[in-house]
Amino acid sequence: MMIDKNISEYIPKGRQNAIHQDELSNLLGIDAGTVKKLIQRERESGASIIDEKELFIVSGQCGYWLTDNITEVREYIRKEEGQAIKRFNTNKAYKRAINEYEGQLSINED
After folding, report:
1. Angle formed by the axes of helices 21-28 and 32-44, nearest 10°
2. Could you tell me the strand order of the sheet in which 48-50 lies?
3. Is residue 13 pLDDT above 90, yes or no?
């Protein structure tokens, strides 16, 4: 199925009405990866304007939902920033370990 609207038009308003990624995938007839890409693309463009309100796509364990509740948006941002910091720190540790490993290889080759 080709989506002719923004994905936010398929996401319900309110945490209590959240929709899971697999439900969106089935509803739209597209794979979960495409759902994620469409949501990310729309998030990167900023808030969606629906019924003359700025609404943000946020997510949690219950799924995706639209909100104009700034507290929920801030909670989402904190969660995403925390995950980004963890990924960055993991990558930094891996790079350090690779550099140490490569340094040991060059020492052993001498």
Report:
1. 100
2. 48-50, 53-60, 63-67
3. yes
Q: Please name the helix (run of DSSP H) or strand (run of DSSP E) that holds residue 61, with its range, or none.
A: none
DSSP string, 61-77: TTEEEEE--HHHHHHHH
Strand ranges, E, within the chain: 48-50, 53-60, 63-67
Q: What pLDDT, in 10s, does the model give residues 49-87?
A: 666 677 888 998 889 999 999 999 999 999 999 999 999
Q: Which has the closest alpha carbon to 47: 76, 26, 89, 21?
A: 76
CA atoms within 13 A on the CB side of 15: 13
Going from N- to C-terminal start, the domains of the chain cover 1-68, 69-110
Helix or strand holding residue 40 (H, E)? helix 32-44
1-68 in CATH: which number? 1.10.10
Q: Which two tokens stand for residue 7?
A: 């994905």
Contact 39, 70 (CB under 8 A): no
Distance CA 89, CA 87 (A): 5
The one-letter amino acid code at 84 reads: A
